[in-house]
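Example 4.3 (complexes with small molecules)
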Amino acid sequence: IIVENAAALQALKINFDFIVVGGGTAGNVVANRLSDNPGTMVLLLEAGGSNADVLNIIVPFYAPRATPDTAQDWNYTTTAQVGLNGRSVTYNRGFVLGGSSSVNYMVYTRGSMDDFDRWAKVTGDEGWSWESLYPYFLKNEDFTSNTTGHYDPSVHGYSGINTVSLSGYPTPIDSRIIDTTTQLDGYPFNLDMNSGNPIGIGWGQATIKDGSRSSSATSYLGSQYIARPNLHVLLNARVTRVLQTATGVVRSVEFVQDLDGPKYTVNATKEVILSAGSIGSPNILLHSGIGDSSALTELGISSVHNLPAVGQKSHRPLLVIPAIPCQLNRYLGHRDAQRHVVGGGVHRVEYRSHGSSGPTSAHYELIFCNGMLPPPPATGNFMSILPVVVSPASRGSITLGSNDPLADPLINPNLLGADVDLVIMREAVKSAIRYTTAPAWDGYVLSTLGLTDTSDAGIEAYIRANAGTIYHPVGSVAMSPKGASWGALNPDLTVKGLTGIRVVDMSIVPFIPAAHTQVSAYIIGERASDLIKQTWGIN
Ligand SMILES: Cc1cc2nc3c(=O)[nH]c(=O)nc-3n(C[C@H](O)[C@H](O)[C@H](O)COP(=O)(O)OP(=O)(O)OC[C@H]3O[C@@H](n4cnc5c(N)ncnc54)[C@H](O)[C@@H]3O)c2cc1C
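Answer. The structure with flavin-adenine dinucleotide bound is encoded below.
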């Protein structure tokens, strides 16, 4: 049930068992799974508005229009990035029901077995291993395509909630991408990059249903779920702090509906679940006095619980350079509209101190677009290859610049902060250029655009001048083993040293998966729901 406003919510006088903060990718999974028991009262508070009827987030083609600088984006920018010649870059996050799953590019990649096995190792909890999480991938997924030879049917789920499909129409670069795998060494064809072994080049899968975006809002909060009488959803409800109801017990939530309007509080009888994302969750905790107590005191925020890991040094970004555009001698589609990812691939490079989780994990990914990113020059036909560092070693931070909970936090992803990331990006750029030297591209690709000096130094300068981020922040409220003196969360996602509050979103991740991150957010939501139900004996 969508509640009209805070006054209407208060008039209901409901004792909510659970309050979920943030109706994003993971938060909507939790709201759905907890409310499937009709006796459990769930309140979901989302800062943004409705996803309904917003064309830019419904039509897959329009995804690049959904952010930045829109009403559905938090419209953040980073601090000046030393590794990018002091540039600040936009840092998009969904500000709408569905969160970033409502504005993302819909690429569906799970990551590798080693990625999740590393989570299990780092947290000491086997429940985070690939094998343990595998059922959750299937539970999330409603795979709909059936193009033989483009995927492995045995590794997908067909009765889940969130739709995943293969590209619905062919583009002129598809066969060239795939043919190259047999013409060049080092790019093996991978029938399905979501099997846990993503190395190679294969057909892209996306969270698209019947030509429309499948987000956590359209799937987990689809009409049959949002109508549940025990699930209440309040939009435009921006949470400013979580509050103690007794010493060490955090079961109260403070929020506003207007930036200069009154503050409201609402209590949970069982738990508050923070699912405000990798920027939102540490931001709320810090303003609540849960973080590094000396840094908070300096800002005039009373320390409630000293937890230095919140927002600190755990935030691993992904990098992408705007693209290696290639000028084509002909083009078979509509020039501007064809910004569509049709294939993808992930690769390893030999480098001693690399940061990937193991042999099944990539160092970099090449994303192929049948069109140009950013928007193309006035004449000519273009495709792009986007190299992405998927196992970056750089670590950044989310900190506060003021004690105003409505002010933007300071987002420092520290892009290219570790030398190895620059080396891997340089190799990825070379690899992208090499890819189009295969016979499959003869007479099709004329030249690259923008990058003229292809020496190591020339490529590095190009990267520093043009690189940005692919919007996959993680680890700003990371898990560590139970009892560890570092980390912010226990492996069951409870906040260390506090009762009544868990964090469930991408901020919990100790190491980034070498993948796009929405699938992880979904399965974190799925496992967390089971952990919460176990704690409270809910079926
Ligand atoms: C432009 C873009 C493109 C991307 N492309 C892809 C892709 O193609 N494939 C892929 O796998 N991943 C992609 N990602 C990343 C992926 O979408 C995210 O990693 C994932 O959705 C994050 O899920 P989450 O639950 O952690 O956070 P979110 O989905 O961001 O949810 C957080 C929610 O909390 C709300 N919130 C925040 N603060 C407050 C507050 N104070 N009070 C109340 N509510 C609050 C937000 O409005 C939001 O709805 C992309 C991301 C972006 C931004």
